[in-house]
Amino acid sequence: MKRNYGILLLLIVLSSCQKSQDYNDNILKFYGDVYEDIGYSVAKTDNGYVIGGQLTIVSRTGNYINTDKSQNNKKLAIIKTDADGNEIWKKSFGDKLTGTGSKIIVLDDGSIVCTGYLTDTVNLQRDIFVVKVDANGETLMQKTYQSSGNQYGIDIVKTSEGFLILGSTDVARLPLTDSTGNIAGNKDILLIRTDNNLEQIQSIVKGYPGNDVGAAIKPDINGGYIVAGTTDRSEIKTDQAANNILLLKINSLFQVTNSKIIGKTDDEYAVDLEVTSDGYIIPVTVGADGTNQKGFILKVPQDIYSTPVFGSYIALTDPTISYSLKAISKYKTNSFVLAGQTGTGSLAKMLVIAIDADGNKVAGKEKILVGTGSQAAYDVISDSDGSIIAVGENSYETNSLICLLKFRF
Questions:
Q1: Which helix H or strand E contains 7, and what residues bound it?
Q2: What is the pLDDT of residues 334-374, one digit of tens each?
Q3: Three-state SS for 151?
């Protein structure tokens, strides 16, 4: 079966681009084809940006697309652009396997590393996948990390010896007790330590019985690393309930030295992490997807067992709007920029807001992208000139395009 999607795609792009006229001196760019194209991560290069995410590679005969899903594969993809968001090159990886890119980083030599997952065609399980390319998009190395269950890459950082991958695994972990182990199918936080050639050195699994999922990993201020994530476990003798924030501290020997569950009676999900000179800024979405969600900012000292420095909700200009946070980045000298979306479903819109070092929204620094279809921002960074670059998706009916928004408040 075949359908003509050429005209539909053009209408999506034109209707979305027309809405970008609402913002002066902004850049709004779209990348991809039809079906599902999503940008999950963005990083700076010397002269532009790279986007990591998902591109659907479709088969065509002229203007007609084969609607047989087996002929149209979702792929882990990297797109490189110039400073104005104009595409320089785009590449997809994984041969015939479907996959997605979750996090992209740029190394000092200009090479690019992206982690995510591939789906095995035999057992339909996910395996962590990492690809490294040079500045021109030529593949330098690829590595798949397989297991007996589902594993996927969430984040990645450079280490002195290679890389540290933050992932998720649902492989059973025994013995199962009240506070250790896990049954097959429940999620644990997975750390894979590699050398510079992506060869695995060590695998570390951390979690409680139930589901524990990492959101981000960052180098810590005094060496080692810090992981922020979400757990459905509550500490004994607290008023915690539902999902809570989980912090893990890892020393320079790659040992998990400290863990802390932080939460109240709300349903809380850690979405990202920034390290400061005196602790950690953690953006949190309160409320599950599809409910009345709100954004929350938590500041935790370096001693994660100490009382949090502050925790506060972020009030949008319209306090009745439901919204979720997805990412955080340092912004200018002593501020942070947050990205996410307002609303859900077809009413969802891309959201970018700035907060100060105390977690307060900066007056006048709130932007909600208004356009045809629904939008979401999954990652955000800022440049030295104060420009903010958010990447995500713009969806219309059953199709979505990778969306890059660059602007200054």
A1: helix 6-19
A2: 999 999 999 988 889 999 999 999 999 999 999 999 888 89
A3: strand
